[in-house]
Structure formats: structure tokens, C-alpha cells
Amino acid sequence: RAFGKLTVMFVVDFSGSMAEADPRSILSFFSCGRASAAMKILAQLKKDSRPGDDIKVGFVSFGNNAKLESAPKPLKDFSANTLNFCGSENESTNYKAAFDKTREALLAVPGNKVVYFISDGLPTIGGNGPVDNTDSTGVHKAAGLTAAQALRTTIENATLNAIFLDAGGAGADAQTYLTQITNDAARVKLATEASQLADKIVELSIPKVTLKDNGLTAELSAPGYPALPVKIESFKQDPAKPGTWIFKTETIKLNAKPGQTAHDR
CA 196, 202, 205: angle at the middle one, nearest 5? Predict the structure, then answer.
């Protein structure tokens, strides 16, 4: 399948600075960059999905704390719009709460998981101690990193992406820190203005289920007989049916006595 069983989670910054960094714009029909980015991913999922794929989408917002705005639901039932993605509160930026809430939402979810984390600032709360807009002691960054590592290591088949709206000039510091958060520099994208978020988020391709040509093995089994390895002579995609693979084994010789069933399928 193109995606198989996949859950996409948007984790979106609603801190006070977002009111200025990513406001609703008349140029985008009173939408915002965060909503436009999410809609790009949703459109991609709908375009690339195939019959049989089980795709769900959820949404976490965060400021001082984090809130599960929408538990994972079928792709067709989820929408990203001005009302639910363009919020901001007079609050700080708590990465720890965001990743803890996302991990909680995904704990019992099977299949592949892809997280899109969108923020315009580095952590200013979350560790021990008061709000610190410069995080001078580093405790808030450390708390966020620990929570992100817990998400990546305890949630199976999870990919964490980070899209940073660099409205305050954090630049290199944000790239370095978010690379630690995602554990992969290729999973971090920086935008200098909100209108770029949609283009940046689609650069982070969604991992698809893949099969390796040399990764297929076959085995013949029958009651009362030892298992027999079978050679695969060919293994290829069906050009007439995208997402379908065809394999052919070597000729198998079945031994049986007259009047007995050699095989039942």
C-alpha cells in the first residue's frame, strides 16, 4: 500500500507570539500559515492514498500547556481551517507539554505515525523554574528534548518532523536544537515567514510502506512434514495495479502416495 495504516498528528504552537508571527491574513482568505501547511499535507494524503489504506489525523495545540484538540480520526472527517489552526493565547512555549500530550495520544495507536511539529519559538517553560524567555539555564530546552526523545523511542514506527517559523531570528540555534528534537537534520525545515510554512512542510515527505526486491523469502509447510525453503524466482510490482506486488517461486515437487491428497490448496 502507499501508506497502509498511518496516523498523522499536527502539533501546533498557540503561544502569544503566534498572534504576530502567523496572524489570520486577508490575503489568504483570513486563514494563516499553520492552517495552509496542514491543508497541504491533507491534500497530499488524499491524493496519494489508495483503497485499503487506513489513514487517521489528529491535532494537538500548545502554549503554557498542551491540549488534544482532536484525537486521531479518519482522514475524510478531519479538517484544518482558520478556526481550529490559527489560534493564539497570551502564553509561553512549552515543548515538553506538547510532546508529552502527543505521546499520550499515540500510545495505543497501531501502524506508522508521522508528527508535524510547528512553532515560532524555542521553549520558554516546561522545565523546573519560572518562565524564561531566553531559557538562560537551558532547563526548558532540556525538558523539551527529553519529552521528544521519549516520544521517538516509546512510540513504534514514529517519524517526528519540525517546521520552525523563524520570525525572531533564532536561525542556527533553532536548527541545532530541533535536529536534536527530531534526531535527523533532514526532518527540520525553517521558514522566515508564515506564508512559507505550506511549502516547507511538503518538503518533509511522508514515509511510505516499501518492499525490498531482495527482502522476500518463502517457505512451504504441510502437516507432518518439515518446513521447506522455497526459492523466489521473481518479485516485481504489477504495472497494472499500483501498490500490488507479484512473486513467482521455483517449481515445487510434491510427493504423495496414490490415493492420498498431496495438498489441499
Answer: 150
Distance of alpha carbon 232 from the chain centroid: 34
**CA–CA separation, 10 and 61 (whole Å):** 8
Q: Which of 23, 16, 110, 14 is nearest to 59 (CA)?
A: 14
How much is the pTM? 0.79
Q: How many whole angstroms separate alpha carbon 181 and alpha carbon 151?
A: 10
Give exposure, 76-97, as e/b (b: 16+ Cβ within 10 Å): eebebebebbbbbeebbbbbbb
Across the chain, which has 265 residues, the per-10-residue mean pLDDT values are: 85 96 78 94 92 94 97 95 91 98 96 96 96 95 98 95 91 95 96 95 78 73 79 84 80 75 58
| Torsion angles phi and psi, residue 70, rounded to 5 | -150, 115
Cα separation of 75 and 219, whole Å? 37
- Calpha distance 85→34 (Å, rounded): 6
Question: What whole-number distance in Å separates Cα of residue 9 and Cα of residue 241?
Answer: 30
Q: Where are the beta strands (DSSP E) in 141-210?
A: 158-165, 188-191
Q: What H or E segment, with its residue span, contains residue 69?
A: strand 66-74
Backbone dihedral angles phi then psi of residue 15, each to the nearest 5 degrees: -65, 170
Comparing C-alpha atoms, which of 176, 169, 172 is closest to residue 192?
169
- Phi, psi torsion values for 255, nearest 5 degrees: -100, 135
